[in-house]
């Protein structure tokens, strides 16, 4: 269970709000192959949640300084953009959770490793640009996840103490960043499953954002009344881990 009413909710973006990680993976594998190399699913997943500069360092360390990184990155971005045109989808529960947070008058923000232009493209495509009070993107901090800077920056903009912020993440590095910031953290797995280390950093592991909304629905709205979702669900017990906050 979520132990206290959040003052704010901070969302990761890729793999949590939008089903983009699979598109990124497909675009990367195709782009690396087109340049005569192979990238495995496992190596790509090891970089999830990291900003672009960190991925660049990991790739060059793995493939060597002669790896045609600039060409691969250019093709990757172009291919990813093309895939988004036809396949960018919301993850289950996004509209329901955002509607609930609006009813509860709980502000929310995004803390992502993606560039701002990409965030705004995705939000506009699904008419969500006005649903978040702040967007903290790659340009807004010096150190990316798993460093807590993205989440500390989001809490600052929201004017909320980190211990009263709820962070929602799909990646291991994201969970590490949110927990290091002192936030109540829930993992909603996408390409990665929760390890024992990650479970120990979380309130719990949710199947999807619908389950998160069900847990939040027990808190009262501005009128002091509790709310339920359309299906009548008022609470849910996560596949829980120790509460570390």
From TrEMBL:
InterPro entries hit by this protein: HAD-like_sf, HAD-SF_hydro_IA, HAD_sf, PGP-like_dom2
Pfam families: Hydrolase (PF00702)
GO molecular function: hydrolase activity
Protein keywords: Hydrolase
NCBIfam families, sorted: HAD-SF-IA-v3
PANTHER family for the chain: 2-DEOXYGLUCOSE-6-PHOSPHATE PHOSPHATASE 2 (PTHR18901), PSEUDOURIDINE-5'-PHOSPHATASE (PTHR18901:SF38)
Descriptive protein name: HAD family hydrolase
């Amino acid at each position: 269970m979520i132990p206290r009413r959040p003052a704010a909710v901070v969302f990761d973006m890729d793999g949590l709000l939008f089903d983009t990680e699979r598109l990124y993976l497909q675009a990367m594998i195709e782009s690396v192959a087109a340049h005569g190399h192979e990238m495995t699913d496992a190596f790509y997943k090891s970089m999830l949640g990291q900003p672009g500069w960190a991925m660049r360092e990991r790739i060059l360390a793995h493939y060597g300084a002669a790896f045609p990184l600039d060409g691969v990155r250019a093709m990757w971005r172009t291919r990813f953009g093309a895939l988004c045109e036809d396949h960018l989808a919301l993850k289950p529960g996004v509209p329901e959770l955002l509607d609930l947070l609006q009813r509860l008058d709980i502000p929310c923000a995004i803390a992502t490793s993606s560039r701002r232009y990409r965030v705004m493209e995705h939000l506009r495509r699904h008419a969500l640009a006005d649903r978040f009070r702040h967007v903290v993107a790659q340009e807004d901090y010096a150190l990316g996840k798993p460093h807590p800077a993205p989440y500390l920056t989001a809490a600052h903009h929201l004017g909320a103490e980190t211990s009263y912020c709820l962070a929602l993440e799909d990646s291991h590095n994201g969970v590490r960043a949110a927990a290091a910031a002192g936030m109540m953290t829930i993992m909603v797995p996408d390409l990665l499953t929760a390890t024992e280390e990650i479970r120990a950093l979380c309130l719990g592991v949710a199947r999807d954002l619908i389950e998160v909304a069900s847990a939040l629905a027990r808190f009262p709205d501005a009128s002091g009344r509790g709310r339920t979702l359309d299906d009548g669900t008022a609470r849910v017990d996560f596949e829980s881990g120790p509460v570390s906050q």
